[in-house]
Amino acid sequence: MKLKLLLSFSILLTASISQAQDSLTIRKIYDEALVNGQAYDNLHYLCKNIGQRISGSANAQKAVDWSKKLMDSYGFDHVFLQEVMVPHWVRGDKEVAKIIDGDKEIAVPIVALGMSVATPKEGITAEVIEVQSLAELKTLGESVIKGKIVFFNRPFDPRFIETGRAYGTAGDQRFAGPAEAAKYGAVGAIVRSLTEIIDDYPHTGTTRYGDIKIPAAAISTKGANLLSSMLKLKKLPAVKFYFKQNCEQLPDVLSYNVIAELKGTENPNKFITVGGHLDSWDLAEGANDDGTGVMQSLEVLRILKTIGYHPKNSIRAVFFMNEENGDKGGEKYAELAAKNKEEHIAAIETDEGGFTPRGFGFTGLSAAALKNVKQNWKPLLEPYDADKLIAGGGGTDIEPLRTAVPSIILIGYLPDSQRYFDLHHTAKDVFENVNKRELELGSAAMASLIYLIDQHGF
Amino acid sequence: MKLKLLLSFSILLTASISQAQDSLTIRKIYDEALVNGQAYDNLHYLCKNIGQRISGSANAQKAVDWSKKLMDSYGFDHVFLQEVMVPHWVRGDKEVAKIIDGDKEIAVPIVALGMSVATPKEGITAEVIEVQSLAELKTLGESVIKGKIVFFNRPFDPRFIETGRAYGTAGDQRFAGPAEAAKYGAVGAIVRSLTEIIDDYPHTGTTRYGDIKIPAAAISTKGANLLSSMLKLKKLPAVKFYFKQNCEQLPDVLSYNVIAELKGTENPNKFITVGGHLDSWDLAEGANDDGTGVMQSLEVLRILKTIGYHPKNSIRAVFFMNEENGDKGGEKYAELAAKNKEEHIAAIETDEGGFTPRGFGFTGLSAAALKNVKQNWKPLLEPYDADKLIAGGGGTDIEPLRTAVPSIILIGYLPDSQRYFDLHHTAKDVFENVNKRELELGSAAMASLIYLIDQHGF
């Protein structure tokens, strides 16, 4: 009995010394991020000196070159590129759209959806059929839809607290709506921008075609509300819609994932990855989507190196290429992980904006392991308001790792979600909408979690 | 034994039915805030149609009149004003300041501190002595300080996670620095703006004089860095500073707290208060300080009324007057509470910006009561990310209630703090820097807490 007691006591003591050490290291991580943080300045360079960097563009290549040089400058153990072929879609001239109400024409803001085909040179003019869901297309059928422009207008549901869920729920209209409308003979598709905010900024984003490709664009929420209210009047002659875009799919281009690594002192072939995507949409600077993510990931490595932490396992910051319209970088990273027989413990993705941290979502943890994580790590992250540790999470870039390395734990970094879809995929996604401290706190939260995973595993 | 078991079971059942009811009501509150929220539009009116509303100004009176009318329009049980005399300080002409380096003069942005006296008409020109703390003044003594301008330049400490703590730590330079410098014969005081951000916007705010009043102003952080670096060069002739301001203290003015009330169905003389302050600084629109707070408070009442909730206790939304430079409204509210023998259960203050909710801080709860609050209410607030329930909190306006009604629980609403001091007391505190959803979630969080207090007490 005595021995057992002594043993328990010694385990408790060890646990408490270890917790104290963890607490000290995490404080060091935060101090480094908040006092000497470099993510904000790096992001400024990426946004203002390079700017938009859609896959396959000259700017995407500039971003690759600069990122590699930046990583080299920090003196990490290993910096390298992974070759990956990516699609090269170009928007072409600024899109034009009008609501035509008899003799009256009202210009409305649209943007072509990513990967969309062009309209004919003279544009498309057609009557409009408004729907709230993909299912409605089936109900209406080809007799109603044929020759028309389908207008998907189901709004964001504001009742979701986490805005990503509203995006997920409304998103099928953009991802799958145009392909579905084409099946019923629609000549074009116009999708309400995926946002709750009512303004004049249309939100782009990829659409996925089936066999038939019809021109597809997003309309601003103000434009959508106007169009919808005019359609409701059911005037004769019927309201028509005109739009013109000359976007184009060019041949695939050789591009790169850009990777920095701190070598593991005990398990160099075991990896913990943190990453975001380097490519962006072409309408602005890709500041929150996902300049913040890549610059935070790099900062995680910089912080760990600067405070003199020597990880047991190898830690990688990965700037994935082509998240926005192809996911080719994420697929390549997973493919090479499998091919090179890398053991991947965990991967964190930061692609929900550089906003104030809330916590992390975990995929692949058993209920018991998640309970442990909460019990042991929540108290360490609570003083930093980054202690929301929940089941479910990951990201597009790391998702392919799940198949490639089935034992991996995928982790989504969860910043506060309220402002993201005000900016997402619009001309407003600029550096000025990133807050320095929020960005820095995110880097620190991820560096802290990686430290804990590296020290204790799951 | 059986009876006891049955009893326990029935208590458990009651608890669980009550928790389920609470959960449903809170969901209703959030739905109403997020789907039909009016706080954002009301705030827009206050910011754009009234604008700055410093105590004693014509705009402050406009804000009182409009607020009263707005409250009347909602049909609450009781809407009334409380008379209160408030100071009337005016800034006068735009301030001018220059660093004088021999023949060179460099303009820098300053603003007079609230309640500061004017400089002589021709301004003040004097040598500058930079200090990091009030204690340093004593060390330097009158022989060094006399005839000089004291420049308080201790920066915000970025290591605090909650920025309010950095404000608290650096704040003595503004509150007490000028009065202290005057004791040693300083002819003026220049205070580094209370913010971490490095930019050209000076932050005003009240300073408190002793017997000797010297002109006092805040300098932008960029200006402060420039001045400090020039002083470090120790050139001869010494760098001088020039500033000119003609602010003025006019006679006190009659003003008002504006109050709306839902009458308690069981305890009409027991009160739960939620409030912010209607007055603002004069440099912008007082959007986050504290337009968001008053509009959220009103929205709390609107939500509870709209969902058909009939509170047991009376619930008040209070628009306090004169928080920024006198606290006269808060003092009056407490004075009348005592005089009218009102029983006050709790008061929540929302005066830290309309940012995304984190939770609440409680003052006056025993450790056991706080534990109960956490145990029972945290699970209900967790789905809404508003479940940080901590010891300590309140606000300037409700603080006098602590003496007037010693049994009261004071509660500070805790929004995320990262962005507040970028804007606080500057020309940037405008409507455009408020996010609609963040504002609405705050109203819903406070309405939910008030519902729980009203139902269950502490």
From TrEMBL, chains A, B:
One example of a Gene Ontology biological process annotation: proteolysis
Chief location of this protein within or outside the cell: endoplasmic reticulum
One GO CC term, this protein: lysosome
Localization of this protein: Endoplasmic reticulum; Golgi apparatus; Lysosome; Secreted
Signal sequence region: 1-20
Ranges where the Peptidase M28 domain occurs: 257-444
GO MF term list: carboxypeptidase activity; metal ion binding; metallodipeptidase activity
InterPro entries documented for this protein: CPQ (IPR039866), Peptidase_M28 (IPR007484)
Keyword Disulfide bond among record annotations: no
Domain of life: Bacteria
The UniProt record lists the keyword Transmembrane helix: no
The entry's keywords: Carboxypeptidase, Endoplasmic reticulum, Glycoprotein, Golgi apparatus, Hydrolase, Lysosome, Metal-binding, Metalloprotease, Protease, Secreted, Signal, Zinc, Zymogen
Subunit: Homodimer. The monomeric form is inactive while the homodimer is active.
Protein name: Carboxypeptidase Q
Lineage start: Bacteria, Pseudomonadati, Bacteroidota, Sphingobacteriia, Sphingobacteriales
